[in-house]
């Protein structure tokens, strides 16, 4: 096989380019103003998670004395750390410029974010009272000079590093250093009393700065200053091998250890005094392999995701009303409906209520005997969990496979596991060495002709909160062969040594790669003999070099390939002799694109699949994932239609290319914004007879 110099894009670098697309949304003047601030918050939150996980992993490779070239796409780990830091510094600088632009535009809308030095008399009184009543009781302040051991700073918490010059006769003035932790239980943006048409907001950090004299009354100082810092810690879970401990105990201890794990990034206000910065770096033992990033006055910009709306709906996206699925009534029996045909729910365009209705109906139906479901991420106060508990109380046998290692949701899932177990739900805690990422549910109902199965298979989590902003497919079906195989997946959770065979479902870790290879090879064979051959794929991330190579092979054979990849894409499209028949775009817009869809031409009789799996090594080889064929011709056409709507996008689509410059796709054809057009597609569908 021909080798090209730029055959793959490094996954970490590709991820940073994805996050730059999020940053582009915050700069796009076609995005409502407050939503732009919130995209800035998403950009910052994404970056925090990147350093906790991906940067931390590369740092571990360096500290182990390895190059990591085999797993990093040929790039040395140490060089990669330096490249990441350079890109992040550039992106952080860009984000500060964008923030200033947004703040100027907010002022034109009579929304003012003011500093502590700009408060008028009434605002000063309000701030003092607010501080005494709401902030002071929650404030954690540490004087650093006399401590023999530097305090452990919380992961991604924001701190004000305070420097005081103490009054005295000595020429060499005494310096006192302190840290103030910004409380998390208080809104970061404090809305001050409105004055006429003008709205005023002060950031909590500045409110605290204004009240420094109240905090440090016991010190006589000549001057005082406060600058923000934060650290990000390695978030990888180091599992205890003690066989006497339960799996829940091990996960709990690992999550607890994460709070004191090694720092991987140190961000500071670039206007901080040199002696303050030197003091902190020495005491915190910041190393060369840590990413040290100068930033702006405010960190934890992720808090901008919660920027107050101020009743300014004109500066927000219009809220859509989730639609019903055509032909599937919420009021009637869902089980009865799906006896006759399959139905597809596509959130957030469709209401998530169908999943809840399915579970509630199963919980109350006297003929339902068992409910089996996988849980990866649940909402706070989850109605899904409540429905499962309700089913147990009605005498159903309920089995829940709950993934305790769902990243950053470990603690929440531990709490749900304990709650469900206490109510009598049978819990399965995963498969040794594998995460369970599949999104499946199966119920068994006693009917006249015997036991009948119903179920649903999804691309996303059963989470009513994220369903409002994540695009995901859920197939409701009573198709006996599919559900018989779905039951095999649940059997695998309990008897992991038994590898089942599947004719319909595509199941990781044993079959997903093999099945997709076979489907691609069929397209190659069809292209060679002149039959219709194409592949259309929509997914979150594409990092498996093995699957990249397979698509390169298909491209060289003449198979036309269209990729829609929201996040990481290690494939380089459009390179003559390697990938000239591959086009790839990314769509970042109002909703987070989360669907996984795979379409193969199959010589004019398309094969269509939805799946929980991206084409990443972890999804293909180290997770339990479930992909499902679509047999209903109407749903098959619906999925291909919505793919084409996305492919036409020329407003929010960015083009992947050798340049990797996140260029917007532009054309002279009419403007197409896929997320808005997808909603219109379903509105129109409801009106059709």
UniProtKB/TrEMBL annotation:
- Which is an annotated Pfam family here? PP_kinase_C_1
Task: Name the cofactor(s) required for activity, per the record.
Answer: Mg(2+)
Coiled coil regions, renumbered to chain: none
Q: Which Gene3D superfamilies match?
A: Endonuclease Chain A, Polyphosphate kinase middle domain, Polyphosphate kinase N-terminal domain
Could you say which EC number(s) this protein's record lists? 2.7.4.1
Q: Which UniProt keywords apply?
A: ATP-binding, Kinase, Magnesium, Metal-binding, Nucleotide-binding, Phosphoprotein, Transferase
Summarize the PTM comment: An intermediate of this reaction is the autophosphorylated ppk in which a phosphate is covalently linked to a histidine residue through a N-P bond.
Where is each Polyphosphate kinase N-terminal domain found? 8-113
Q: Which SUPFAM superfamilies match?
A: Phospholipase D/nuclease (SSF56024), PHP14-like (SSF143724), PPK N-terminal domain-like (SSF140356)
Please provide the Gene Ontology terms (biological process) for this protein.
polyphosphate biosynthetic process
| Alphabetized InterPro entries for the sequence | PP_kinase, PP_kinase_C_1, PP_kinase_middle, PP_kinase_middle_dom_sf, PPK_C_dom2, PPK_N_dom, PPK_N_dom_sf
**Which reactions are catalysed by this chain?**
[phosphate](n) + ATP = [phosphate](n+1) + ADP
- Please tell me where ATP binds in this chain: 46, 470, 566, 594
Residues in Polyphosphate kinase middle domain copies: 123-307
Where do the Polyphosphate kinase C-terminal domain residues begin and end?
333-497, 505-675
User: Superkingdom of this entry's organism?
Assistant: Bacteria
- Chain residues that bind Mg(2+): 377, 407
Output the Gene Ontology terms for molecular function.
Answer: ATP binding; metal ion binding; polyphosphate kinase activity
CDD domains noted in UniProt: PLDc_EcPPK1_C1_like, PLDc_EcPPK1_C2_like
Active site at 437 (phosphohistidine intermediate)
- Top EC class of this enzyme: transferase
Has keyword Phosphoprotein? yes
Instruction: Describe its function.
Output: Catalyzes the reversible transfer of the terminal phosphate of ATP to form a long-chain polyphosphate (polyP).
Similarity remark:
Belongs to the polyphosphate kinase 1 (PPK1) family.
Q: State what protein this is by name.
A: Polyphosphate kinase
Q: Which organism is it from?
A: Maribacter algicola
